[in-house]
Every structure is written in structure tokens, then in C-alpha cells.
Amino acid sequence: MALNIKEELCTACGLCVRVCPYEGVVVEGNTAVFTERCNLCGQCVSSCPVDAIVVELPKKGDVDTSLWSNVWVLAETEDGRLKGGTIELLGQGRLLAEARGCALEGVVLGDRCDELAKDMIAFGADKVYVVEDPVLARYRTGPFASVIAGLIHDRKPEMVLISATPQGRDLGSRLAARIGAGLTADCTGLSIWDEEPLLLQTRPAFGGNIMASILCREARPQMSTVRPNVFKKPQADPSRTGAIERVAVHLDEKHAMTKILEVIREEGGEEVNLADAQIIVSGGRGIQAPENFALIRSLAEVLGAAVGASRATVDAGWISATHQVGQTGKTVSPKLYIACGISGAIQHLAGMSSSDYIIAINRDPSAPIFEVADLGVVGDVFQVVPALREELAKRLAE
Amino acid sequence: MKIVVCIKQVPATTNVRIDPETNALIREGVESQVNPFDENALEAALQVKDGYDGECQVIALTMGPPQAEAALRDAVAMGCDDAILLTDGAFRGADTLATSYTLAQAIRRIGDVDLVLCGKQAIDGDTAQVGPGVAEHLGVPQITFAIELSLEGRKITAKRMLEDSFEVVECRMPAVVTVVKQINDPRRASMKNVLKARKREITRWTAEDIDADPDRIGFQGSPTVVWKVFAPEGRKGGRKLEGEVGDVVHALADEILEIRKGLSTA
């Protein structure tokens, strides 16, 4: 990849100099000029008011793949902690790095990242790149994509793993388009291909009706977003040591493209992070009335589980849309999915059938949910769920 | 105001299967439809138009084989002013990178576009990668997973639906916004408009028409390749518990606590 300045268009206005996070461009005489510090992050391209900066993305076969090595994990954080998906990526990334005989490296951006970097090392990273700046305090597409694009060009990782969360998908696709990399979405399998040393990325498509294995032969890095909860979380080893490298950037709030006005948490602080949840208790039309979600919530609470819902209940306004599991809602794969009063329309199954273990409670023995459930209870939700809650509460208290 | 809505024609995915012998996709008899999330994007665009004080043009855009024209006719029937089909043998084999480049080139050719709307993802590939890719190729801000959208002058304010929270974000136009299903209920086209849309001229553009770099479109412009497709391991129904609630609950609790024991606490 290369960036070129069309001198005949450049007005030497200096805007590119101000937006560059890496001090990689200066104005000399009547034109902008890239310096050796340019990391090809691409931030200047869209800022140029006269389109004088042109990106040349690599053509197929142009990339010397031997220059690219190491496995990267891009951290996603929440409330100053690594999210579950990032920890899983470190576990799986470690296996890939060992298979390739290379290092596993983490990248963390934020306003305060020291503890996060140490955590990444404890979970398996050999080295962590830390980029701290107030502009990076909360994730935003523009600054994150530019900083990471620059890092990637500079350090040349062979593979980049990102969680397939809303943030990861937003970032991954912007980043891949910026640098001309191949990106595979929502992977549930990652391994080194046995025919060539390439990342073999396996993912469901067509609502889970087919699986596809995808390769990226020529472009680098090979990038994947990875479905949370599929790979095992490694145990933290606080005695592990690794390097932390701070990367200095120059960011200006003015060039961040978007501004966050407000963050709204779900009402009542209730657990709805379905993608990260290891146990989900879901309610469907069989619970008959909106107030009966209290039963579902109460069972979820005892188990420390998230609350899910079928499309029918969300459409009826019984519960907010963030809870919806299914093809038009969220795709989840918890260790345990408990479906209460859910018949199992194909729409719903597409969103939860990759769960490890499925328990279904439904009055109708012919409900399709029983065809995917590992354990089915043919019974009345209004009897079984409260009794189960009591039984679990009693045993957990012991 | 000029709005482009990127749409995709998709098979009714719940019916797509793999032939277990040949591992080939069986698409026979599977009907095509406009990707459901794109219907929400179309509706969002039409709502902007309905509430806009001044001239507002909504253009539906798709890349696909000639028969993808049907999706554009649906969009016109819903109320789009114009429709453009990007169709060319050279577009074949495009992954999300090549697709987003191609759409962005078409949007450049359309010119003076203020807002690009897309569904959050297509239900066949489920990647959610094309909208942000288009934004990057155009060099404009992106707001993904919008559940609310409002425009005021050149300012866009949108509420994004995240995993367990919402984020209210603003940016300036031009921008790309991708929408979730919960943003609206797409209108149904009247029979009269469906019939009218059948006779409408649909603009067709080739790679040359959008001045596309041959190295960045279709298979040649796609870094990823599908190595193989196969049928997922099917789930089979397991044990069923029936009988006295007390016994059933006891057995259920055993099972649940056993699984819970194996979970990591992180």
C-alpha cells in the first residue's frame, strides 16, 4: 500500500498535518510531503479538502507475505476491564501463535491502559502495544481505525483477531477497507490450514444452515472477527511476563468524525449482555403476558444469567429489543441456553442453535424447540420455572 | 437532499441447504427477497423524505446479477425515486471489500449524496462489513446499528444499539448509517405501486460506468476466498423429561448445576 500526494492539487493547507496521529506528514513549500514517520494509517486521505491524497491499495500478489508475522489480538474493554471475548481471543491466539512459531501480541487503546496491558499478558500475550489518549477514552470508529491502521503497517502482523461484537464489527470492517485486508466475519473456528500456513477461518452463513471455511491467501494481515463464547477462556497467569510498548499518537477531538452524546444503560442495570453471557434464560410467547418476564428474570438472577427473548415477545412490546435472540435479533452461543415457553421458530433457532447445551421447557411436546434441545421438559412453564428457581436457590445457598 | 439506500437481494435463507453428497448449495426453489434489514433502511430513507422540508431524492442501489432488478422494483414500489443496478460479469466473486468498493464508486458517480443507508447486515452472509466498507471508501463517518435516526440541518444524530446499552452519536453529513430491524416497520407497497414499479426503467451500470479499477472489483479485488462449504453438524433432540414437577425440577437442577460448575468465572 502507498499514499501519494498529487502536487498539482495540493494547496498546502496543512489539514493533513493536523489530523495525522503519527506526525507522518509535513508541509514543505507549496505541497504536503510524507515523512518517514508516515505509517500509512490513511487518516489524512478523507481529511483532504481537495482530494489530493490518493491511496494505492496493494494488488493481489503484490504483498510479500514473508514480511508479515505474529498474531495480534485487538482488545475490547468495558469499565476498565477486558471483555470476555478478548480473553477468549488471547487463548485461541496463543494456540495459533504456537502453531506458527510466532509471538502473540495485544493492542489496547484507551485513556488508561496499564492494568489492561498486564491482564493481556497474564492471559497469554507476549507483548502489548499501548496507545493512550483522551480521544480514545471510549471506542469510536475514526480514531481507533486510524491508530490501528498505522500500527498494522508499521509492525506487520500476520493475523489480527477481533471480537465479533458491535464494536469489533464496526472497527474490523472499517480497518480492513482502509488497509485492503481480507476480513472474515463472526468466525466460530480458527486454525492453521494443514496445506499451507494460512489462517483457516470457519463461520456459519445462511442463518447457520451452512458452514463456510475461508482463506485469505495474498493480502495481509489475515483478519477475523470471532464470535464470543465459542473459544475457551484461558486461565490468567499473573506470573507471566511480557513487554509493554507505548506508542505515542497525536489526536485531536476535532477530527474524530463522530461525537458520543450519551450512553444509555438498560433499565435497572439488568444483565442483558447476551453475547458475553455464559448462561441465557429466554422467554417466549408461552409465558403469556409481559409481567411474566419476572419469572424468567428471577430464574436468570439465581443463575447469574442474561435474559433473552423471542421475537414474538419483543414485537408485542413485552421486553426491549436488546433482549431479542434470533435471526433479526442477536446470535448467541452461551454454554447453557434455557428456553422457556419458546416454540422454536426457525428464526429463533438461527440465533441460538450454536449454544453448547440447550434446555427447553414447553407445554407442547411437538414444539420444534425440542428438536434442538439436549434436554427437553414437556410441562407448564408456570409450574416448572418457579419450582426450578426455588430448587436452584436452595442448592446454591448450601 | 440525496439519499442512497444500498440493498441486497438474498435467498430466503431458512430454506437454503447443503447437499450432503456434493457439499453444493441447494438454492433450487428458494425464493429471493430484499434483505429484511435493507427494508428497514429503505423505510428510514423514505421517512426522512416524508418529513423533509424541501426536495429529497431516494435512490436504491444494488450490485448483483440481472435478476437482482426484482429487488430494486420492490424498492421503487415502496417509494424510491430511482433505482440503479450494478451488473457486470467483472463484479462476480466479490467479497465484502470488493463489494463495498464497487458500491462506493457508484455512489461517487451518483454524486452529491448526503446520506447512505444500509441494513446492518444481510441475512445470507451475516457479515455487517459492507456498510462500514462503503463509508471508508467514501471517506465519510459511519454510524452502525442505528435504532433511531434524526437529521437537523447537516447534522445526523443516531442512537446505536450495542450489546447491553445504547449510544447516542452525532456526526456531519455526508455519512453512512446502518440500521437494525427495530428502527421502524417497513411500509408495504400498494398493489398499484407494485404494478407501476414493474414498468419502471431501472438504470444499469457496468464496471466501466462507475470508473472501477479492475484490480479492486469482483474476484480480483477480493482478498478472501471461500475454500469450502459444508453442512453444520446437525443438532438432534436429546432426552425428554416428563412427569411430576418435583422430579423433573430435581433432575433439571442437577443438570444445570453440573454445567454451571464447569463455567469460568470471568
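Chain A touches chain B through 107 residues (CB under 8 Å).
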